[in-house]
Design a protein that fits this description.
The protein is of the alpha+beta class. The chain folds into three domains: 2-75, Lipocalin, CATH 2.40.128; 98-243, Methane Monooxygenase Hydroxylase, Chain G, domain 1 (Up-down Bundle), CATH 1.20.58.340; 276-339. The protein has nine helices and six strands. The chain has helices at 20-27, 76-88, 96-130, 140-171, 174-180, 188-195, 200-271, 284-308, 316-332, and strands at 2-8, 13-18, 40-45, 48-53, 56-60, 64-68. A six-stranded antiparallel sheet has the order 2-1-6-5-4-3. Strand 4 and strand 5 form a beta hairpin. It is rod-shaped, with a radius of gyration of 40 Å. It comes from Cyclopterus lumpus (Lumpsucker). This is Magnesium transporter. InterPro entries: MRS2-like. Belongs to the CorA metal ion transporter (MIT) (TC 1.A.35) family.
């Protein structure tokens, strides 16, 4: 058995279950016509339009719309409250299959647009936080959110592409468009209306082309978002490279400073070997050697920075020498007896 929901031209709804064989015989269809092998398809068979839009499976006839396997898909609200009034609308004189296709394709486009409206704001917020130049490292939790949104965006882009290809395949074939005009082959009055200037094939083409253009617009938005992700990724890498370069520069400066201090620190090592000489008798030698060590270390450090092209900001070098002078001033006030 297969569950069905039947909509007539007045918007009346009936739901029931029927055997597949009975459905095939009633609509003069083959079993292969209702296998729904593709997630998105739109074909004409024996004066019926068989379509599938993701979870929605439907058959359009000149007088009714059959929705198959509708239970448990979350479509009940749309089927009862929105689809029935659209089918019952008499605002235009086009046949019933035009109203049915218009309602189903509009539902498909609205679903795709709703998915995009969910993904887009979350992705933009995540990208804005990731490209902040003040951030020294990328937040893994935000990267995980971006990965999930990117995956959802890729799935959405694929669905839009399949939907567009389905419509484009029909728009490229005039015979298929003619076959979709079901009432034209069953109601003789339709031919009279066509002779009066109403071309139903042209109306069907305009209907399909309208939703193709809407899908194309959604596809352009998804491509813009993917391009924004790629640009943001480049900005993130540039930010990380910039901060990494700052840390490498600082590490190099500290290494050169350590080398300079170690080099002139050998003088202090030489005086600390407990070797007797005439220098330890003079109190001024300590300050002379200490000042020479610090000044020599500072000069070597600056020479190394200049040689490697790693100049510090103007405020850093004077600060170094100020600290050196404060150090010498502090120790000059210490009682010399403290060192005996």
């Amino acid at each position: 058995f297969i569950s069905q929901m039947n909509f007539d031209q007045e918007g009346n709804v009936t739901s029931f279950e029927k055997k597949k064989t009975e459905l095939f015989q009633e609509l003069s269809l083959q079993a292969r016509d209702l296998r729904f092998q593709h997630s998105t398809s739109l074909i004409a068979r024996n004066n019926c339009i068989i379509l599938r839009m993701e979870s929605l499976k439907a058959i359009v006839t000149p007088h009714s719309l059959l929705v198959l396997d509708f239970r448990g898909l979350g479509l009940e609200h749309w089927l009862v409250l929105e689809l029935a009034p659209q089918l019952a609308s008499q605002s235009h004189s086009l046949p019933f299959e035009f109203r049915a296709l218009d309602a189903i394709l509009q539902h498909k486009v609205n679903t795709l647009r709703a998915r995009l409206n969910v993904v887009e704001p979350a992705m933009l917020d995540t990208l804005e936080s990731l490209v902040d130049p003040k951030i020294l490292s990328a937040d893994r939790s935000k990267l995980h959110v971006l990965l999930q949104n990117s995956k959802s965006l890729s799935e959405l882009e694929t669905d839009i592409k399949v939907f567009k290809e389905t419509l484009l395949k029909i728009l490229d074939e005039d015979e298929i468009i003619e076959e979709l005009c079901l009432t034209k082959w069953t109601d003789p009055r339709v031919f009279e209306e066509s002779s009066l200037g109403i071309d139903h094939a042209e109306e069907m083409e305009l209907l399909l082309d309208n939703y193709y253009m809407q899908a194309e617009e959604l596809g352009n938005k998804t491509r813009e978002l993917k391009g924004l992700i790629d640009d943001s990724e480049s900005v993130i890498f540039i930010n990380l490279d910039s901060h990494r370069n700052v840390m490498m520069r600082l590490s190099l400066q500290l290494s050169m400073g350590s080398f300079s201090l170690s080099l002139f620190g050998l003088i202090g090592v030489a005086f600390g070997m407990n070797l007797e000489s005439s220098f330890e008798e003079d109190a001024r030698i300590f300050w002379l050697v200490t000042g020479f060590m610090f000044l020599g270390s500072g000069m070597i450090w600056r020479r190394l920075l200049s040689f490697l092209g790693r100049h510090l900001e103007p405020s850093v070098a004077p600060l170094y020498f100020k600290l050196l002078l404060c150090h010498l001033w502090f120790w000059s006030w210490m009682p010399w007896q403290h060192w005996n």
